[in-house]
Specification:
The structure holds 2 protein chains of 2 kinds. By secondary structure, chain A is mostly beta strands. In chain A, about 0% of the residues lie in helices and about 55% in strands. Chain A is built from no helices and 11 strands. The relative contact order of chain A is 0.34. Chain B has no helices and 11 strands. The chains are: A mainly beta, B mainly beta.
Protein backbone atom coordinates (compact mmCIF):
# COMPACT_ATOMS: atom_id res chain seq x y z
CA UNK A 1 0.00 0.00 0.00
CA UNK A 2 1.68 3.19 -1.19
CA UNK A 3 -1.16 5.61 -0.65
CA UNK A 4 -2.31 8.21 1.80
CA UNK A 5 -6.09 8.19 2.04
CA UNK A 6 -8.38 10.88 3.38
CA UNK A 7 -12.05 11.00 4.30
CA UNK A 8 -14.39 12.56 3.59
CA UNK A 9 -13.64 13.88 0.10
CA UNK A 10 -16.02 16.79 0.55
CA UNK A 11 -17.47 18.37 3.67
CA UNK A 12 -19.96 21.19 4.14
CA UNK A 13 -20.42 22.46 7.67
CA UNK A 14 -21.97 25.33 9.51
CA UNK A 15 -20.04 27.59 11.83
CA UNK A 16 -21.49 25.90 14.91
CA UNK A 17 -20.81 22.33 13.79
CA UNK A 18 -18.15 19.93 15.02
CA UNK A 19 -16.62 17.63 12.42
CA UNK A 20 -13.45 15.62 11.92
CA UNK A 21 -11.20 14.96 8.98
CA UNK A 22 -9.40 11.63 8.80
CA UNK A 23 -6.15 10.57 7.22
CA UNK A 24 -4.67 7.10 7.01
CA UNK A 25 -1.46 5.56 5.68
CA UNK A 26 -0.13 2.02 5.90
CA UNK A 27 3.36 2.63 4.60
CA UNK A 28 4.92 2.56 8.06
CA UNK A 29 5.65 6.26 7.83
CA UNK A 30 6.46 7.88 11.17
CA UNK A 31 5.76 11.50 10.27
CA UNK A 32 2.39 12.89 9.26
CA UNK A 33 1.34 16.41 8.29
CA UNK A 34 -1.72 18.58 7.84
CA UNK A 35 -1.69 21.30 5.18
CA UNK A 36 -4.30 23.86 4.19
CA UNK A 37 -4.54 24.91 0.54
CA UNK A 38 -6.68 27.81 -0.62
CA UNK A 39 -7.64 28.07 -4.28
CA UNK A 40 -4.74 28.98 -6.58
CA UNK A 41 -2.33 29.06 -3.63
CA UNK A 42 0.37 26.67 -2.46
CA UNK A 43 -0.18 24.31 0.48
CA UNK A 44 0.52 25.85 3.89
CA UNK A 45 1.83 23.66 6.69
CA UNK A 46 -0.45 23.50 9.74
CA UNK A 47 0.77 20.63 11.94
CA UNK A 48 3.52 18.02 12.01
CA UNK A 49 3.41 14.77 13.97
CA UNK A 50 6.66 12.89 14.52
CA UNK A 51 6.39 9.41 16.02
CA UNK A 52 2.80 10.20 17.05
CA UNK A 53 3.79 13.36 18.92
CA UNK A 54 2.93 16.87 17.82
CA UNK A 55 6.20 18.53 16.93
CA UNK A 56 5.12 21.56 14.93
CA UNK A 57 2.07 23.80 15.25
CA UNK A 58 2.34 26.65 12.79
CA UNK A 59 0.32 29.13 14.87
CA UNK A 60 -2.94 27.54 13.82
CA UNK A 61 -6.14 28.77 15.58
CA UNK A 62 -7.45 26.50 18.33
CA UNK A 63 -10.62 25.79 16.36
CA UNK A 64 -8.40 23.26 14.55
CA UNK A 65 -7.34 20.42 16.82
CA UNK A 66 -5.11 17.61 15.51
CA UNK A 67 -4.95 14.14 16.93
CA UNK A 68 -2.75 11.15 16.17
CA UNK A 69 -4.38 8.03 17.67
CA UNK A 70 -1.70 5.71 16.29
CA UNK A 71 1.11 5.64 13.78
CA UNK A 72 -1.25 5.07 10.84
CA UNK A 73 -3.98 7.58 11.61
CA UNK A 74 -4.17 11.34 11.78
CA UNK A 75 -7.31 13.31 12.56
CA UNK A 76 -8.14 16.99 12.37
CA UNK A 77 -11.04 18.02 14.61
CA UNK A 78 -12.92 21.10 13.53
CA UNK A 79 -15.08 23.28 15.77
CA UNK A 80 -16.59 26.74 15.34
CA UNK A 81 -14.93 27.32 11.99
CA UNK A 82 -15.21 30.50 9.97
CA UNK A 83 -16.09 30.85 6.26
CA UNK A 84 -12.47 31.83 5.55
CA UNK A 85 -11.46 28.35 6.73
CA UNK A 86 -12.99 26.93 3.56
CA UNK A 87 -10.14 25.25 1.69
CA UNK A 88 -8.63 21.96 0.59
CA UNK A 89 -7.12 20.18 3.60
CA UNK A 90 -4.28 17.90 2.63
CA UNK A 91 -2.68 15.21 4.71
CA UNK A 92 0.83 14.01 3.92
CA UNK A 93 3.25 11.47 5.35
CA UNK A 94 6.95 10.73 5.15
CA UNK A 95 9.08 7.78 6.21
CA UNK A 96 10.77 9.80 8.92
CA UNK A 97 10.47 13.38 10.15
CA UNK A 98 13.95 14.31 8.96
CA UNK A 99 14.56 17.19 6.55
CA UNK A 100 15.47 15.04 3.56
CA UNK A 101 12.36 12.89 3.62
CA UNK A 102 9.88 12.87 0.76
CA UNK A 103 6.32 13.76 1.65
CA UNK A 104 3.45 11.98 -0.06
CA UNK A 105 0.09 13.71 -0.17
CA UNK A 106 -3.40 12.34 0.24
CA UNK A 107 -6.22 13.43 -2.13
CA UNK A 108 -7.45 16.04 0.33
CA UNK A 109 -10.78 16.98 1.87
CA UNK A 110 -12.50 19.93 0.27
CA UNK A 111 -14.14 21.84 3.11
CA UNK A 112 -16.82 24.49 2.75
CA UNK A 113 -17.86 26.45 5.84
CA UNK A 114 -21.18 28.23 5.55
CA UNK B 1 10.53 29.43 8.11
CA UNK B 2 11.50 31.68 5.26
CA UNK B 3 10.13 32.33 1.80
CA UNK B 4 10.47 30.47 -1.44
CA UNK B 5 10.12 32.59 -4.56
CA UNK B 6 8.94 30.92 -7.78
CA UNK B 7 8.91 32.28 -11.34
CA UNK B 8 7.17 32.56 -13.67
CA UNK B 9 3.64 32.41 -12.30
CA UNK B 10 2.30 31.32 -15.69
CA UNK B 11 4.09 29.68 -18.60
CA UNK B 12 2.69 28.76 -21.99
CA UNK B 13 4.72 26.66 -24.42
CA UNK B 14 4.13 24.83 -27.66
CA UNK B 15 4.07 21.05 -27.55
CA UNK B 16 7.60 19.72 -27.96
CA UNK B 17 9.27 22.84 -26.58
CA UNK B 18 11.09 22.97 -23.26
CA UNK B 19 9.78 24.60 -20.07
CA UNK B 20 11.90 26.01 -17.26
CA UNK B 21 10.64 27.05 -13.83
CA UNK B 22 12.94 28.73 -11.32
CA UNK B 23 12.86 29.01 -7.54
CA UNK B 24 14.96 30.78 -4.97
CA UNK B 25 15.03 30.23 -1.23
CA UNK B 26 16.44 32.16 1.66
CA UNK B 27 16.83 29.63 4.50
CA UNK B 28 20.39 28.35 4.28
CA UNK B 29 19.37 25.35 6.42
CA UNK B 30 17.19 24.03 3.57
CA UNK B 31 18.61 20.83 2.20
CA UNK B 32 15.79 19.09 0.37
CA UNK B 33 14.01 20.48 -2.68
CA UNK B 34 11.01 18.62 -4.10
CA UNK B 35 8.89 19.57 -7.09
CA UNK B 36 5.18 18.77 -7.12
CA UNK B 37 2.72 18.72 -10.01
CA UNK B 38 -0.90 19.47 -9.17
CA UNK B 39 -3.68 18.98 -11.69
CA UNK B 40 -6.99 20.73 -11.15
CA UNK B 41 -8.87 19.24 -8.21
CA UNK B 42 -6.16 16.69 -7.45
CA UNK B 43 -3.43 16.18 -4.88
CA UNK B 44 0.11 17.49 -5.32
CA UNK B 45 2.21 14.67 -6.77
CA UNK B 46 5.95 14.49 -6.40
CA UNK B 47 7.64 14.48 -9.81
CA UNK B 48 11.29 14.90 -8.86
CA UNK B 49 13.37 15.97 -5.89
CA UNK B 50 16.96 16.87 -5.17
CA UNK B 51 19.04 16.92 -2.03
CA UNK B 52 21.68 19.45 -1.19
CA UNK B 53 24.61 17.15 -1.80
CA UNK B 54 23.63 16.84 -5.48
CA UNK B 55 23.80 19.51 -8.20
CA UNK B 56 21.62 17.93 -10.85
CA UNK B 57 19.18 15.07 -11.21
CA UNK B 58 17.36 13.80 -14.27
CA UNK B 59 14.40 11.48 -14.77
CA UNK B 60 13.47 11.01 -18.43
CA UNK B 61 12.09 14.36 -19.65
CA UNK B 62 12.38 16.04 -16.26
CA UNK B 63 15.51 17.46 -14.68
CA UNK B 64 16.25 19.59 -11.65
CA UNK B 65 19.35 21.66 -10.97
CA UNK B 66 20.44 23.09 -7.65
CA UNK B 67 22.88 25.90 -6.92
CA UNK B 68 23.30 26.00 -3.16
CA UNK B 69 25.68 28.94 -3.21
CA UNK B 70 23.15 31.09 -5.04
CA UNK B 71 20.21 29.43 -3.26
CA UNK B 72 18.29 28.67 -6.38
CA UNK B 73 16.98 25.55 -8.09
CA UNK B 74 15.21 24.97 -11.36
CA UNK B 75 12.88 22.48 -13.03
CA UNK B 76 13.42 21.66 -16.66
CA UNK B 77 10.86 19.77 -18.74
CA UNK B 78 11.90 18.81 -22.26
CA UNK B 79 9.70 17.68 -25.17
CA UNK B 80 6.60 18.98 -23.39
CA UNK B 81 3.27 17.26 -23.96
CA UNK B 82 -0.29 18.52 -23.37
CA UNK B 83 -0.58 16.23 -20.33
CA UNK B 84 2.25 18.20 -18.70
CA UNK B 85 -0.25 21.07 -18.31
CA UNK B 86 -0.74 21.63 -14.58
CA UNK B 87 0.39 23.81 -11.69
CA UNK B 88 3.94 23.09 -10.56
CA UNK B 89 5.11 23.90 -7.05
CA UNK B 90 8.68 23.98 -5.85
CA UNK B 91 9.41 23.55 -2.17
CA UNK B 92 12.34 23.85 0.20
CA UNK B 93 12.58 21.84 3.39
CA UNK B 94 14.62 22.38 6.51
CA UNK B 95 13.95 19.96 9.34
CA UNK B 96 10.17 19.89 9.93
CA UNK B 97 9.40 23.05 7.98
CA UNK B 98 8.50 22.79 4.29
CA UNK B 99 7.76 25.96 2.37
CA UNK B 100 6.23 26.01 -1.07
CA UNK B 101 6.65 28.48 -3.89
CA UNK B 102 3.53 30.21 -5.16
CA UNK B 103 3.22 27.86 -8.11
CA UNK B 104 3.58 28.04 -11.89
CA UNK B 105 0.65 27.32 -14.15
CA UNK B 106 2.10 25.54 -17.17
CA UNK B 107 0.02 25.27 -20.33
CA UNK B 108 1.28 23.13 -23.19
CA UNK B 109 -0.49 23.92 -26.44
CA UNK B 110 -0.95 21.06 -28.90
Amino acid sequence: DTEVTQTPKHLVMGMTNKKSLKCEQHMGHRAMYWYKQKAKKPPELMFVYSYEKLSINESVPSRFSPECPNSSLLNLHLHALQPEDSALYLCASSQDPGPGETQYFGPGTRLLVL
Amino acid sequence: GENVEQHPSTLSVQEGDSAVIKCTYSDSASNYFPWYKQELGKRPQLIIDIRSNVGEKKDQRIAVTLNKTAKHFSLHITETQPEDSAVYFCAARSWDDMRFGAGTRLTVKP
